[in-house]
Amino acid sequence: MDFLPNIFIGSSREGKKVTEKVIEQLKGFADCRAWTEAFEIGKSNFDNLTGQIAFYDYAILIATADDVITSRKKQQKTGRDNVLFEFGLFSGGLGHSKVFYILEKNTKIPSDLTGITLPFVPNRYDPNFDIHIKTCVDEIKKHILNKEKTFDLGFLPSTALAYGYFSNFIVRTVERLLEDKVKKKNFSLAGNRKFQIQDLKFTILIPNDLSDDMFSKVKAKRLKDGWGKLNVVRKEIRDYDFSVDISKAVNGELHLVDIPFTLNALNKAVELYSKKQHIGKTVKEQILEEREIRNFKRTLEYLINGNAFTKGIVNVEIVDI
Predict the structure, then answer these.
(1) How many secondary structure helices (H) and strands (E) does the chain include?
(2) In the chain, which stretches have pLDDT less than 70?
(3) How far is CA 200 from CA 163, 171, 197, 313, 316, in A?
(4) Can you tell me the distance from the alpha carbon of 25 to that of 27, in angstroms, rounded to the nearest whole number?
(5) Residue 243's beta-bridge partner residues?
(6) 321: which of 121, 214, 293, 304 lies 20 to 30 Å off by Cα?
(7) What is the residue range of 285's domain?
(8) 284: Cα separation from own chain's centroid
């Protein structure tokens, strides 16, 4: 992976030692935050949990055998109710494929989870406990590595926005320009300079922060880098003025550049989710923003490389604007 996923680790107070062992095995693979560090002062546990789900990519809930219950006249060991509740909460928010429920062996499995493959670990006093933890975490790592090849629709809209931007804008524009290339259409740039497309490149620039309006970022980039403008008549939709890197428009190379205006919607979504009522960004807001920018870029790259029109022509960069 080209990034470290953020993982929430939850357990009972009695299971804290197990949490520490899991975090140790995930070191260098993920940025982990134990439940003991995740709660903010002045909020209830419920508000803390529901307000933080979107800040994490994955969650691991550890159910150690801390309680004894009598169920249908049978006495059994079970995990704490709050750990099971948090498993359900994160599963509903992140999706069940991004949440792991580690159970201590011989612990009662909730009936609703019957049939689901769950990772088990022995009692923490077992002499081979560390080996079993490593095996369990290695399986979770494999699952995460495989999961990172897909893109989910989550609380925030980065995946959906990237898909819409690609399908409705990028593909159709590239298709039109390739047709113009075949037809040897004449284009005009600054100074009434005429040329025909011999080679086409398209760079999507994604700002490394969403703190400013995208229209302002585009204007600033145009002025600072001396971009020109080019009108493209696209298929079945309205015309659009493109920014062109004139310095690269040599020998018939048309190098288009674009900053997605749709990122304004992503910025607003982040603000609404975090209930922002202040100037500046908290650490959690920064993490959330970085994750959504990263997901927007990765989704675009996946779509670009899987499309016959855009592969080899369009590339994506995260830049400081």
Answers:
(1) 10, 14
(2) 1-2, 67, 69, 112, 114-116, 151-156, 188-193, 212, 223, 226-252, 273-280
(3) 22, 13, 7, 6, 15
(4) 6
(5) 229, 257
(6) 304
(7) 158-319
(8) 14
Number of domains in the chain: 2
Confidence at residue 150, expressed as pLDDT on a 0 to 100 scale: 72
Same domain, 142 and 256: no
What local confidence, expressed as pLDDT, does residue 263 receive? 85
The predicted model scores a pTM of 0.71
Residues 287 and 170 in one domain: yes
DSSP of 208-274: S--SS-HHHHHHHHHHHHT-EEEEE--TTS--EEEEE-GGG--TTEEEEEE--TTHHHHHHHHHHHT
Structure tokens at 67: 């309680």
Residue 34 CA, distance from chain mean position = 20
**Helices 263-273/283-305 angle, 10° precision:** 140
